[in-house]
């Protein structure tokens, strides 16, 4: 058994040894293999540095590729063996236990840069040889007669010994001479190329200007041209070359011959195609990846007038459950099968399917009639997912949510289109999944605005953009003001004043509701202290009280009780000045752990109000176990009382709730009172306090002072 190298330098030398053994047999060098290994050692060290560098050093990798040419590794096989060696061993011996996946990706980019550096250096060397040959050819024609023999001998030596293919033809295109390198490129052992005509070598992949440049050259209108050209070999395979064709003139300047110099680039082209494929296709499914898809989408969006596009953005429903329960290997097999089915859905011209990552796929269709085509494409995708997929002996049902964006080219960027499709897909998923939805610009705008508000919330709290308005609580018996409910508002720099329905759900989703709620509680309690200082500890009708809403997130926060105690102590306000409102839905099915902080607050003297009572499905018997002292009836109970006579069923319901509440020593507050008739009817039914626009809309704290003065004079 061979011992592993002990340190980084030993590993590096081991890598250089493997590299030299692989490449030395195809290298034209007079050095021995150990000497050649010493030449590769600094190159190996440079590759190791590039692999582990913080930012990718493409120039360093290209320099290594160029150094191979300087070391006489000019055979294409030398490059292929080098890349195979780097691919197999560089991360193993030089990765130093880093992120294996990241190092493999870095290694692939490194190989691409090495190949580019090798190609550039080989091309420069080839061009230098071509220039030397061309100069020798010209000098051979221009020398005086007595030096003709020596010049011809030198030209023949260059012609036969050159590593690139050389051919000479007359101006009619008949091949006169070819060297051995060119015959080897075409895979023939005898000079059967002689006598053939240049025009016989047309190829379907010829650049449009190929034969125009050729005609200009044989007419004497240009001296040379250079391009990439493909040729058919006798066995039917394709030979790709860098072709340079020069015009040879006689002593009088009359065009006489054409000289073709060919560099075989077939292996390099295949390597570039392989690297290009790996860079633009998903390794797991073989589908085009995100970068390739964006290229196609950008091309479709710039297609010009009259062209349209359709995009289906697919996300699998419940894919995380497959990964969590069966493992990622099973999830990968599921994705491969889904990719195959999606690929079969997009076979028409102008259609493609790509994988963006994870379980997200996109299907694109282009052309003038995508309005109907994209709907049909989405339908085919949904049908393709109907049949269960067998994974590890289990039949898995696969469903997906699709967001569809369709429209004319030239109006939106790829990023905007994909964002709209993503938003629409999540709208389909929120509607239950296993469906597709069409993009709605208004819905997109709402989501974008929602996201903007979410990201702006933390800074808004720091900048003091929130303020509180207060809506009075009025006693129905004598009309006196008994307190107010604190309602937070957001003065947004762009959108103006926003109500709590616009940002409280966002604050709950992000967790910012806890610091925001703490701020609202402290500001409201300070305002309660200011009112009590103005009106005294109690008014003629009793103490003024401030009502503050608690969200479900605040209820489960462990610091709720301590924060409330600290705020009351810091402001010097008695607990009976505070009422915390909790929605009925938040307490449905609440266990003792959730009720424990509310019980502690109630024992301190803080009132607890059950807000929006009547909108949920709680058992009325549960009221006995809840630590509440106030029921706040939802405004839905008062709407029918705006008409006369009121709905008798609603009257009976409210009367029953009030009787039940009073039997449990609970006060009843009614929301949404907008008319005097409502207020009178609720007073007759026995409700204690009310709030609504009939008394006052939410406003600044001074409004309560004005109402209190009116109450006092009355």
TrEMBL record:
Residues 307-441 form the GGDEF domain. InterPro entries: Biofilm_reg_signaling (IPR052155), EAL_dom (IPR001633), EAL_sf (IPR035919), GGDEF_dom (IPR000160), Nucleotide_cyclase (IPR029787), PAC (IPR001610), PAS (IPR000014), PAS-assoc_C (IPR000700). Residues 151-221 form the PAS domain. Transmembrane segments: none annotated. Residues 225-277 form the PAC domain. Residues 450-712 form the EAL domain. PANTHER family: BIOFILM ARCHITECTURE MAINTENANCE PROTEIN MBAA, DIGUANYLATE CYCLASE DGCP. This is Cyclic Di-GMP phosphodiesterase RmdA. The gene is rmdA.
